[in-house]
Structure formats: C-alpha cells, structure tokens
Design goal:
Two copies of one chain form a homodimer.
Chain A: E1 20-21, E2 24-25, H1 26-33, E3 38-41, H2 43-56, E4 62-66, H3 73-80, E5 85-88, H4 91-99, E6 107-109, H5 116-125, E7 128-131, H6 134-147, E8 152-158, E9 166-169, E10 179-180, H7 184-193, E11 197-203, E12 206-209, H8 212-230, E13 239-241, H9 259-276, E14 281-286, H10 288-291, E15 295-307, E16 310-315, E17 339-341, E18 350-356, E19 365-373, E20 380-383, E21 405-408
Parallel strand pairs in A: 3-21, 4-5, 4-14, 5-6, 6-7, 7-8, 8-10, 8-11, 11-13, 13-14, 16-18
Antiparallel strand pairs in A: 1-2, 3-15, 9-12, 15-16, 15-20, 17-20, 18-19
Helix pairs in contact in A: 5-6, 8-9
C-alpha cells in the first residue's frame, strides 16, 4: 500500500521548464513583483472556477463570494464582475466590497460580533445584514430610526443539526453564530415589531467539507428549516442563503469535492424552494472554493543545510506569511500542503527535504520531509492551494520581517 | 480530585473593585488608550522580573532580552536600561534594538535564514552574529571585505542532545537551527581561515520549559559542549550564550519555574566556566520569561448570547489579535489561558461562559467554558500572560478588523 498523496494540482502549466502562473514563468513574475516572498493569484483560474460552478449549479442559484477568504482589492474587482454578490464579515470588508463595485443590493454582512458602527455602515450602505442576536435587532432599529432608513435584514439561523464531515462546524449545538432555530420565531416577531425589512434566512452549518453527500444533506435540511421558519416571518422570504462549505483538497489522501453531485442535488432543492418559498432566490456563498486553488505562495531558498542526514531548505518565507501551511491554523495534526520547486531540475533528481523559514521556532515549517525536485539556493519554492486564508490570515509582524507581497496575474 | 487550575496571576492589583495595571484601573486605561482591544504591559512588573532574575542568577551572568518575544519600541527602551544586552532575529529587530539605545557590543543576531542584507546590517552595526551555517561564514567574509570591517561572530551549536520537557525543541537531532556540534570544528577552521572575529558559542536547546532540572541539565551540558569545542577555536571564548528556555505557566496544572533552583545551579556552571573558559562571560537570553507575565490583552464584551444553554460572551477582540490564546499557535490540544472579567461583579456571582471574538470561525475562541465573574455587555475581558508572542504573533489582517493597540503603563 502506498502512502496517501496530494490530489493533483491543476491549472498551473509549465513554461520553459518552470512553473507558470497565467502563462508567465514564475521567475519572471518574481522579477516583476520585485522581491520574494509573494502570493500570486491566477485570474484565469478564478474565472474558470466560477464558470465551473455556473455550469454545475442550477441557473437560478445566485453565487456569492465571501471576501474573508481573500480580500485583495484587485481580486475583488475581478470577482465582482463574475459573481452575483459579495459577503462581508467586517466594516472594512464592506468598504472593500463597495470599492470593488459591488451592488449593495447583493452584499450581505455576517459575523457574531458586529459593532454598532459596523451595523450603521451596513444600514447606510443599504446592504443586507444577517442578524445573529437579539441585540443586533435592537441596534438596527435604533440606527434605522436615526438614519431614516429601513434596515434590510435576514436571520442567520443556528440549525438544530450539524454538517457532517465539515472541517469546521459552525452550526448545531450551542454556537456563537446565528440565532438558535428554536429562538427564531421570537426573533422574527421582534423584527416585525421593530419594522426592520425582513428578507430571509441564512443557514450555514460548516466549512471546508469534501463530502458531497454531507453538503447535499445540509442544503436539503437548510431548505426544510427555512420553510418551517418562514411560517413565522412577517413577510415572504426573498433570499435563502444556504452557505457554502465546499472544500478543497489540501492534504495527502484528500479528494476533490464531487461538484456535479452537489449541483445536481441543488437543482432539486431549488425546484422545491420554487414551490415552497416562491419569491425566494437561493444564494450559495463560497470563499475558499473560488480562490483557494487559484493562488500560490512563493518564496526563495536562501540556504541549504544538511543536519544529521536531513536536508533543510531555508527560505525567506514561512509561518509569518502563511500560517495555515505551517500547520498552525486549525489543524490538530500538522500535514503538508502540496509544495513544489518551481524550477524543476533538469536532472529530474529528487530528494526528501524539509522547507523551513527564517524564524527562530520549530513551528516555522512549510514542508516536513517531502520528496521534492532537487533544489539549490536561489530556487523558488511554491506552496499550492494558498489562494484563501493565506496572506490575510498570517501574523506578518512576527519577528518583524517584511510582509509578503500579492500579485494577480 | 479537583480539576487542574491556573497558577495564580501575580502583580495585578485591584483598584476600585476593578483590575489595575500599574495602579491604574483598567477602565481608565481603556479610556486613555482610546479604544479596545489593546495590550497593556506593566513597566513595574517587567522591572520586578528583571530584579528577580538578578537576585536569583549569579552576578557574573549577563542577562539578555530576546526582542522577538515583544518588540514594542517603548518596552524595548525600558528594557534596554535594565538588561545587559539585546538579542535580535531580523534586520528590523536590529534597527529597533539600536533605536532603543542598545550597545552594539551587547547585541547579538540569531536566525536560521539571515539574508545577505541582514548580515550586512549586522556587520555595519558592529553586533555579534550567531552563525548558523557555512553559507553565513562565506557571506560574512565577503561583507567584511567590502565594508572594511571585521565581522564579530559566534557559532550557534545544534547540540547532540535534546532539552527535556521543552515546549519547543530547538536542538538535538536534525534541526535547521545552528551548526551540528560535530560539524563545528570545521566551521571554526573556516572562520579562522576567513579571519572573522570569533567570540564564542551559542547553545540553545529549547524554549518554554517549566522544569528547573531540565534547564539546569541543559546548562551543564551546554558548558561541557562549549569547553570541548573551544579546543578547536581560533581564539579564546569570550562569550557563551546558554540560551534561555525559562517557561511561564500558561495552562491549568502548570506551575511556575523554580527560578532559585536554576540560579543556584547556574552559579556552579559559572564557577566551572570561570576555570575552563576563563575569558568567557555567560549570557542567559530570555524573552517570554521577562515580559510574558507583565502583559495582558484587553477586549470588551459587545454581546452576550445564550445558545442552547451555553453562554457566549462575544467580544471585539479575538484570534486575529491573540492567536496563541485561541490555541492556534503551537498547541496540539487547545487549553485556556488565564482569563478574567476586569470588573469583578459586586454580587460575586460566577457563571461558566465561553469568550469568543467577532470572526466567523469557531477557531475564534479566547476562553472555552470557563468559570468567570458574571459579566455583561460593556465589561472588559482580560487575558493574562499575554506579554510575549501576543501582539506581534497574531494575524491582524484576518477579516480586516482594526488591529489592537499597545500601551506600556
């Protein structure tokens, strides 16, 4: 039995014996960026992923991008033209969504700890607020009165079930996210009494799920829950956000999500919704799935050390730039991201190496004893599947090295 | 049998029924800072810790501060007057050390991936470089020739043994840190041939160790190793950096390090060193131990939610400001830092709550079902033992919320 392998990395061609992004060899991109390390995102791969989603999902479903996965402004501007809406998780993300040309009618805001000022921003912008607590109802009421605007709201529901196989469970049991399903009727009454503009529900049960059946089941149950709760709503449901949770394969042994299975099932959910909630459009909200595989992290080997028989490629990048790849972001047991040497050695020689960064800590590890093409000082190391929760989710200030750069190719 | 408890938090008094830092009630500090969340460091506690170290350690030992634990400029200026030297881990830390008034004669630079430019900075500044690879010897030689300066160097040694009970092992076995002990004679010959200014050794085997015996053993073995290697040195050893590794108790059941045991043992090591390496001074390099317990992280409760019987205090701070307290920085199993409500409730009522942040992820957890004083919206939550690897080691950009502030009181 062979060891588990990484799922194939697709979309990155080679040019001149070297990995390319958008057809441009990586060494040329590095020269254009000006220095390493950097993140590079492939515009065409993002577009292709959205097209694949459009092809697989029923045409009536609206596709939203969750900015938190990657808020790079140029990427947002690109995505803003491809998707039907943007989802934000902070006041600054809201500003970025509007700057990117997002239509306020199709921007929504979720998050368990929205501040008063953030809620006021949302009302002033005319976006949809996913309400997560009774407090937000009260605050939005006051803000609406003060601004002379009717806040647009949906209720984020903490469902009574968990999404199976989810990388991160965000619904079911006691949770800080959303309002418990059994409390939603009271929240709806409160929304009606305070004359907020009710538009629908947001039911999101987890993220980074690679099992199509689990996602399908969550969508079915999400619709069922919304139909039940709609009986208590002050007005018809216009929007039903079923979340996302579509995972991508990071680690050895993981397989890509069967998107066509999810799409076919969602067509049935959409048909049922058309009957049961006739005025509602269904929203699928994806972040990682849209951008995660379109991005790479690139750093340069600055030393090659052999310590007691093991080879260490010491790079100018590391944990401070890419926390998730170091294994310190939600992983219980550290596993390697897919990593490669950009300059495939002409000799095709391979060796087992560890890729580390410049930090004085054993946590600063990008690849732990992986078999890679033989490499030397000056070569570029690539960490794949780095388009989501990479740049923005890393502690750039740790040890005061320069931050990474970002480029959209 | 009762559950393990956190070691007592010492040094933070109460004033007016409220936690105080430097004698100032926390609500007043919050008003002075201007907003929450923030880190507050107590100047007097830092001073007291250095005094405790001076009292416990033999007088001939030089005490260095490792800036990476907390590089806040005001704190560095304060510490620069208290300790004998500063240790840096990047070019930016070197600039900060010099800005703080550090004497270049007593600044040293360690790190497995120093860039050419960083090495040139070090030579130009006249500080001591802890050499970690053969490549650095070559680079320093070229830089010295070019600048017309003799680089000051010590050899960082990867010892042939591991430090027992260390939170993070940084020596023994194959490691990216330092030069394997068995390779050091060749490195010393190379240093001599290139006429670098040899000054000594740096032997550091691990960090965050709470067992005095393990630290004592590492110090004994560090000296033995240095004495052996000194036979191959081109000139007498002037400096022997035995690292630090002194831990602080973060989690329930952990006990403070028996500093007096380490100090008494180190007196013997220092006596032996005076005979065996008569020109050498011994350096102990500490970061976390000096500042970790002098700092707190403070955030404000913005919502109080009850979900299926569990209470969640939703704050304006979280993982993006304090990654380590969320359990995502080197912990395998998440444990709670010591956390408290600053405003002790007058009723003394207590309840079991989870403290979460505003991020849309279940990772954003500062306290998992802890018994705290009953609290309400507006109250301040304090995470103790946050003076080291807090602010600078956190992903401030994650979800684009404002960064925390820092204040030295």
């Amino acid at each position: 039995m062979s060891a588990p392998r990484h799922a194939a990395v697709e979309g990155f061609a080679t040019a001149g014996g070297e990995l390319a992004v958008g057809g441009v060899p990586l060494s040329r991109i590095a020269a254009r960026v000006g220095r390493t390390p950097f993140y590079a995102y492939d515009r065409q791969l993002v577009t292709a992923r959205v097209q694949a989603l459009r092809a697989a999902l029923p045409p009536t479903v609206r596709l939203h991008y969750a900015i938190k996965a990657n808020p790079m402004p140029a990427l947002l501007s690109h995505l803003g033209r491809l998707v039907d809406g943007l989802d934000v998780a902070s006041g600054a993300e809201l500003r970025a969504a509007l700057d990117a040309g997002g239509d306020p009618a199709e921007i929504s805001f979720a998050g368990p700890g929205k501040s008063h000022d953030e809620l006021a921003q949302a009302v002033a912008a005319g976006i949809l607020v996913n309400i997560e607590s009774h407090r937000e109802i009260e605050l939005l009421h006051g803000i609406g009165e003060r601004l002379g605007l009717r806040p647009r709201v949906a209720v984020r529901v903490n469902p009574p079930y968990e999404l199976k196989s989810s990388g991160m469970k965000m619904g079911g049991g006691p949770k800080p996210f959303g309002i418990d399903a059994e409390e939603v009727p009271a929240a709806l009454a409160s929304i009606a009494a305070r004359r907020l503009g009710f538009e629908g529900f947001h039911v999101f049960s987890g993220s980074q799920n690679l099992r199509a059946e689990a996602i399908c089941e969550a969508q079915t149950r999400g619709l069922e829950l919304a139909v039940q709760l709609a009986r208590h709503a002050p007005s018809p449901v216009l929007s039903l956000n079923l979340g996302g949770g579509f995972g991508i394969p990071y680690f050895p042994g993981e397989q890509p999500l069967a998107l066509e299975v999810v799409g076919a099932h969602l067509a049935g959910v959409a048909s049922a919704a058309a009957e049961q909630l006739p005025q509602a459009h269904i929203v699928i909200e994806l972040g990682r799935y849209i951008v995660g595989e379109a991005g790479i992290y690139v750093c340069r080997i600055i030393d090659r050390k052999v310590s007691r028989g093991e080879v260490f490629l010491v790079t100018d990048g590391g944990l401070h730039h890419h926390l998730a790849a170091s294994g310190n972001f939600g992983q219980v047991i550290r596993k390697n991201y897919p990593v490669a040497i950009a300059h495939a050695s002409s000799s095709e020689a391979r060796e087992t190496v560890s890729v580390v960064g410049p930090l004085c800590t054993p946590l600063d590890l990008l690849a732990d004893r992986m078999e890679l093409a033989a490499a030397e000082v000056g070569d570029l190391v690539v960490v794949f599947r780095s388009g989501a929760y990479g740049y923005s989710a890393s502690p750039h200030g740790f040890l005061s090295h320069p931050p990474p750069l970002e480029v959209l190719v």
